[in-house]
Amino acid sequence: MCIAAPAQIIEIKDNVATVDFGGVRQQAKLDLVEDADIGRYVLVHSGYAIEVLSDEEAQESLEAWDELLKIMEEDAEELES
Asked: When you count CB atoms within 10 A of the terminal residue's CB, does the N or C end of the chain come out lower?
């Protein structure tokens, strides 16, 4: 299963963005989106930005990811004990 993750655009060069996933940076091609700009959030899937998020959508998406990561950490702790 593949999931698109929210990331903030911190740099754009030649239609390729450097995006930040909470401290982890990677490159994402911008071929599939319009209106991508530095500071905006995008959903990234397989190295491509597939959607530019509104500020509200970005906040909701980041909160959902935080909750998912929290649950995964709790599950990992239970498996270790």
From this structure: N
